UniProtKB/TrEMBL annotation:
Name under which the protein is recorded: Heparan-alpha-glucosaminide N-acetyltransferase catalytic domain-containing protein
Transmembrane helix in keyword set: yes
Segments passing through the bilayer: 30-48, 68-86, 98-116, 128-149, 156-176, 213-234, 243-261, 267-290, 302-328, 348-374
Region of interest (Disordered), residue spans: 1-20
Record's keyword terms, sorted: Membrane, Transmembrane, Transmembrane helix
Presence of keyword Membrane: yes
Domain of life where this protein originates: Bacteria
Pfam families the record matches: HGSNAT_cat
The species this protein was found in: Robiginitalea biformata (strain ATCC BAA-864 / DSM 15991 / KCTC 12146 / HTCC2501)
Domain Heparan-alpha-glucosaminide N-acetyltransferase catalytic: 24-245
Lineage, uppermost ranks: Bacteria, Pseudomonadati, Bacteroidota, Flavobacteriia, Flavobacteriales
Amino acid sequence: MTVRNNDQRERTNPEKQTKAMKERIVSVDIFRGLTIALMILVNTPGTWEAVYAPFRHAEWHGYTPTDLVFPFFLFIVGTSIVFAYRNKQPDAATHRKIIVRTLKLILLGIFLGAFTVEPPFFEPFSEIRFPGVLQRIGVVFFAAALLFLHTNYKTLLAITVVILLGYWVWMAFIPLGGEPPSLERVPNNWANYIDVHVFGSHTYKPDYDPEGLLSTLPAIASALLGIFTGRVLVSDRANKTQWMLLAGAALLAAGSIWGLVFPVNKALWTSSFVLVTAGWANLLLALIYYLTDVKKMQFGSIFRYAGANAITVYFLSSFVTSLFYQIQVDEGLSVHGWLFRNIYVHEFLPLALSSLLYGLTVMGFYLLLGWWLYRRKIFIKV
């Protein structure tokens, strides 16, 4: 990771900094920070035994608000690629930066899955999970950034369509082991089958991984759809809000209809799931864009601060949460358990509300951390 303090840059090149601030689209930073905040909230309840339904993932088919969070982040990864690389040349230096960032994300993800507080501080190799959230972000970023640099929007659209249709055909029509393929959590499900045979024991569950190998292909499409929205945001068109609303409604409708034959499913990251989540992402971003960039309302600044160091905030929250679960402070009670039981659990509060309050506290802490880093002009590039 690279720590950058912007004080010196502002002093040495104020005109460039002023121009960059003017070109900045506030809603994108707010959307990114809001997504990270929600990722932290849904990942850190006080207890997994008492969580309100909207903060749980769907059991298999279908989706909840929680299932929107990760695809929202991949969508905004695509949007951010437009801002970061629209003036870059597809040369060796740019490729090197993309590769380095990809490797950082993948290695940080593997580190999160492997670290333990007990010497030698890493899980046995056979128990390390290879896929993960940061790993998927890294792979998706790599593919989307290269495609953005080397293709025009027509080719990018064709690639997106091919990915989504090709994944549907692969998952729903190509036989596996002499049997028709299934979209359930069974051996003749292509995504599950590939994960088990490629990763072996290095998966989230013995029979599947929600950030698995095959399902990363449509996850790339989530970022590519974000690129199209990013292209609109940097364009000179005057009706950006209306475009995002129409695109969001169209994607949501198309995904819902497709879901009748190819169910909306986060664990499999089905093509219908890609369209539905991109639809909601466009609708939410359109609202934030209208309030902040069009009407110039002071809205969601705390999320903007976190969005400026999004990966850093997410990594720290995941790492500290892992420590809190592993470090024992009382007999059979971890730091996490002790804090939750002694501060948040009360007879007059429903357990699910106590659990939510714990998660909100954790989220609030990392939002404040993002604010502190932003005010100090510390931006950690991953």
